[in-house]
Every structure is written in C-alpha cells, then in structure tokens.
Design a protein that fits this description.
Largest sheet: 7 strands, antiparallel
Structural class: mainly beta
Distance between the termini: 32 Å
C-alpha cells in the first residue's frame, strides 16, 4: 500500500510544502541504520547495517517491497570502508585482517537484479608484509568508471621513508593504473590525511608531519605542520608547500585545486584542545612556486556575537565556537569562498544511566570569505540535536547547492518554531521532530518548516538523503522498530 501525504506549514518567514510517497513499514533491529539508499533500473533500494550484518531491501518504482538479501561479514576481523551502487550491483568494500598481521582489501558484490544469484567477493589488494605498522588502512574513492584505492606501503624498517601506493580499478575490478609515491619524510613522523588527483593527473597529497614524534601535547608549541605535495610519478617530480605557524594548533582542514593554484583552510586553537578563535588559510601557486596567501584570521565581533543555541558543555570553557568542526570548503561563482562548520560534541552518559554515550549536533556556522580570505559576512543556523545510544543518523544536516543558494535540511524541535530566546530547545526524542529547511545566501536566510513527526509518521534520516531528480529525494524514515523508504518532493510556493 502506498501512502501519499502532503504537509504544508507556515514558518515565521516563508511557506513551502512537501509531498511524501511511502512504502509500507518493515521491521528492523533496534540499532540498525541505513548506510546507503540508491535508485536502480526498476525501482529503489536501501542497505541497512547492524554490527557486522548488512541487509539490502529492494522496492519497485511504486515503492512496493520486492525482497531482501543479507550479507554477513567476518566478526571482529572485517570492517566496512566503503559502499556504493553501480549498474545493478551493490559493492561493499571491506578491510579484512588475516593471519600474520596481513590485511586484505575485499570487495563483496551483491546483484540487485537477481536476488537468487549468490554473492561473490574478490580480494583486490593483499598486504603480505605489515610487520612494523598495524594501522595501515585502505582508502577508497569511487569514480564514474571504477574506484581509486590508496594505502601506505608497509615500511621495511622503522626509519624508512613514507611511501604511498595508489591503484585504479575498473568495475570489473581489473587493475588499470598503478603508482608508488615516495615522501621524503620518515614514516613514523608523517601522517597522510588525503590524496586527490588533479586536473593534470598529478597527485595532490595532504600530510601532517611531526618534528620529533607524533605527540601533540609536547611543551607549549605545536609539534607538527601541514605539508602539501604535488607528485607526478611519471617523471618522479615532487613539489611542496607547507602551512607552518608555530604559534597556533591548526586543525585538519579542506583543500581545493584549480589550474595549478592550491587552496586550503581550517580552524585553529591556541593550545591543544583549546578554544577556536579563528581559521587558517593557505593559497599557493604550484606552477610559479609562489605563496599567494599564508595567514590566520581571528574571529571578530561579527562572528562572536552571532545568535547561538546557548549550549555549553563545561564550566570553564564558555566560547560558543569551541566545539565547531569544519565540514565544507565551497567556492562560489564569483570565486569567493564559503566555510561551513558544525558544532559537535560526544558526551559521556550520566553515572548509573542505562545509556553509554550520547552525541550533540549543534549550530551550523557559515563564513563567507572574499578574495583576500577575510570574512565579509557570517551566519549561524541555530539547532540543537541530541542522540542517545545511536550513531547520530537522525541528527546533523544534509547540504545541497542550488546555483548560488545553499539549502540545509535538518530535524528540529517543534517548540523552536516559536523561539524567542537565545537558547534552542534540544531535539532528543523522535516524536518532537520537525523537518526543516533553511536557504542561505550572503544576503538572505529563510527558514521553512515542512512536516512534523506525525505528518511524516516517522523521523527522517536526514544525512543520507539522495536527490533522484530536481527537488525529489529518496528518504528513509523510522518509527520504533520499523522503518520505511519514501520519495519526498519539495514544492516551491514562493
């Protein structure tokens, strides 16, 4: 049975409506969460994960349940590192610990066009020597033709230089490209944070390099710096630049590459795990080997005085910016930049409680930067989401960009629609949820309340929404120990 539900509500600023089309409810385990929603040739699907088990539920184009398929991984030895859908198959990439400290990158293939077809798996990479470093992980980057995989090469000796192996596979999992990149730094002093391919098929490598040893709480000054490399394995060339401000502790940031010009930014603190008074910014021309911008910026009154949810997790620390973490680094059409950060804190449970932990997802901070990297306007989206004993899948937000407009979807407490004070009501229980969307530009911020828990008959897992066409999204909702898949259409009324 398909249920159509229209929910139209008024906010203090605007009006929109949403149209839901739902499948029937299916029973799910208590702590199961949706890891992937996808659209296949004849309908839709969702992958649900509970501990080491995966379940794939398939639906037709009218959201009628077709059937399901289960996949069991090796308990305590196999961990999932990536999952995606391509051409009637779900690909689950896992890292498996095998005998003698060896590690294997394994891909499990589950066909969605034939539920009776048995699953199969292939071992793509087998690290036969892993003696001195047991924390070598595989990193997977899906592309339109297959996947990129990179990992650190197990060092031969304790003082060996850092080496990275980068491999490209097609969707038949045949190896089509392979490169080994050597970084002239001792392996125990170099942490690889990220690798990307540039527009000229070179490798952009983001590293965190330590001066003595990987201990951040060493004395009163930072013991590390960020170094960025551009590597061309074809001719063994390696160029580099670095961000090294010895007076601050820079946090891991985000980076961008455009025609040889590299940019990176992130938040920073003035002591380990301290308050976050500003952000760092680096712009470097790798073609001409020239620093264009290398600076830090402290937050001014414009940012510090923004309204906030009033959340403080300690007595001694009172900054409303201390629990912010960088999520996105966006470039707009005018070549200005946008920094998006979200407030996050993992809170221990009360002593004697049946809960072990809970997570807090708070405000969203937007910093609009001009060409000189300075903030020309800032906005703070107020929210307060708190979760008990789950993975926060119903918290945080979903961000999409429509031309020059940013749209944030999130679950909010229904009481906040009439918020007058500078303290948001915490959303803890699902029955208090209200689906919201905020549209933002440098000169505009509008709030829309779309549907409450009763209207959608469940709480939506916002973070993993999938846009299947313009203003149409595949969504997953839960109510108690049952869940459903749906299509949500956003209708523009203004």
């Amino acid at each position: 049975m398909i249920v159509l539900l229209t929910a139209t509500t008024n906010s203090v600023k605007a009006q929109k409506s949403v149209l839901f089309q739902w499948s029937n409810f299916l029973k799910v385990p208590k702590y199961a969460q949706a890891y992937l929603t996808f659209k296949h040739e004849s309908g839709y699907g969702v992958v649900i994960k509970l501990n080491q088990n995966l379940r794939i539920n398939l639906f037709d184009s009218q959201l009628k349940f077709i059937g399901s398929k289960s996949l069991d991984m090796i308990k305590a030895k196999e961990s999932m590192i990536d999952i995606h859908y391509f051409k009637n198959a779900v690909y689950v990439l896992t890292q498996v610990d095998i005998t003698n400290q060896r590690q294997v990158l394994r891909v499990r293939i589950i066909k969605t066009d034939s539920l009776k077809e048995p699953d199969r798996y292939t071992d793509l990479i087998n690290l036969r020597e892993n003696r001195f470093n047991r924390e070598i992980d595989f990193h997977v980057i899906p592309i339109s033709t297959g996947i990129h995989v990179w990992h650190i090469v197990p060092p031969e000796f304790d003082d060996s230089y850092q080496s990275i192996e980068y491999t490209t596979f097609d969707f038949e999992f045949k190896k089509i490209d392979h490169a080994v990149i050597d970084i002239p730094v001792k392996n125990d002093l170099c942490e690889i944070l990220k690798i990307e391919l540039t527009d000229k098929k070179q490798f952009l490598i983001y590293t965190k390099e330590y001066a003595v040893r990987p201990v951040e709480k060493r004395g009163f000054l930072p013991n590390y710096k960020f170094v960025f490399y551009v590597a061309d394995p074809g001719n063994n060339k390696l160029k580099q630049c670095e961000f090294n401000n010895k007076n601050i502790y820079p946090e891991r940031g985000r980076m961008k590459w455009t025609d040889g010009v590299f940019e990176a930014t992130g938040l920073f603190s003035e002591k380990t795990d301290g308050l976050k008074p500003g952000y760092w910014y680096l712009k470097y021309d790798f073609i001409n080997s020239k620093y264009l911008i290398d600076t830090i910026h402290y937050f001014g009154k414009q940012v510090k005085d923004l309204p906030n949810n009033g959340f403080k997790y300690s007595i001694s620390r009172r900054s409303s910016l201390e629990t912010m973490f960088l999520d996105y680094f966006i470039r707009d059409k005018l070549n200005n930049k946008i920094i998006v950060a979200e407030q996050y804190y993992l809170m221990p449970a009360t002593f004697g409680s049946t809960y072990t932990y809970n997570r807090f997802y708070g405000d969203i901070l937007l910093l609009f930067l001009d060409s000189t990297s300075k903030v020309y306007t800032a906005k703070r989206l107020i929210k307060a989401q708190q979760t008990f004993n789950n993975f926060g899948e119903y918290s945080s937000y979903y961000l999409e960009r429509k031309d020059s407009v940013l749209r944030f979807f999130y679950n909010d407490h229904t009481a906040n629609r009439k918020l007058k004070k500078n303290k948001a009501q915490h959303l803890v229980w699902h029955k208090h949820a209200n689906l919201c969307i905020i549209t933002v530009t440098p000169n505009m911020l509008k709030t829309y309340y779309l549907a409450n828990y009763k209207q959608s008959d469940g709480i939506l897992q916002i973070r993993d929404m999938l846009e299947i066409s313009n203003n149409k999204y595949l969504v997953y909702a839960r109510k108690g120990k049952k869940a459903k898949l749906g299509i949500m259409e956003l209708i523009e009324n203004d």
